Amino acid sequence: xxxxxxxxxxxxxxxxxxxxxxxxxxxxxxxxxxxxxxxxxxxxxxxxxxxxxxxxxxxxxxxxxxxxxxxxxxxxxxxxxxxxxxxxxxxxxxxxxxxxxxxxxxxxxxxxxxxxxxxxxxxxxxxxxxxxxxxxxxxxxxxxxxxxxxxxxxxxxxxxxxxxxxxxxxxxxxxxxxxxxxxxxxxxxxxxxxxxxxxxxxxxxxxxxxxxxxxxxxxxxxxxxxxxxxxxxxxxxxxxxxxxxxxxxxxxxxxxxxxxxxxxxxxxxxxxxxxxxxxxxxxxxxxxxxxxxxxxxxxxxxxxxxxxxxxxxxxxxxxxxxxxxxxxx
Length: 329
Description:
The chain is an alpha+beta fold. It contains 15 helices and nine strands.
């Protein structure tokens, strides 16, 4: 579906006028007001790394309603741009890790059951933080309906295009409070969705950081979130520094994990020398294997150009660039 273009906004306007001016009859405002969310979603189950996950897939109609909300509400949500790097245009996980590349000691943790913990009341209070900035004149009148459109079973679902922006903004009080603490201690802080990274040149500067993060998370959001038990850890130079699936090398370079490099090199080797074994890497489907290799190379392209050059020298420019630029959509 093509992205609708929002009209030039000078003043706040009623939501139905904004909707009609955006879609010009392609979608009806009555759908925005009354369509059942449950009737416009399907459930997809997939397995990755041995874990089975459920993903909610919205219909084309619901996607259009969500896109409208993105244009006129979600894009106006305030967030701490110095801390939060997830789901933001022009940024990715690499940017969250690169901030820490020059440091020597790290504390990493993640928030338990992050999306399921974002309940309807928290979604509503978060959306209201965009009230003054967004162009919707009658936001208060339509807020409960908007929350209906972005929540399923009383919480924020995985799979809706509206969920990432809300999840970025929902912890703003926590992000601000932890940033203030980290700045006072000379620490570097980034958050990527539910993953939190704090780093420093000296390990002593991280003393008490676990307790501080846990306390601030509890205090700033009324105990609605907590750290995942057993997932918090300290890392120091001399051990493998693995953050968000990437590694920080001893020279401060951010690169992909060795397991990813190994998979790429095995796939390219088999692609060049044994097509049957190449296909076997993806359940005997050569197209899936090609798409996998393309995805991995494009992932590396956002992180470590030097490693791509090594692959070109080892396997040839043609094969690497073929998969790097090929589309499998």
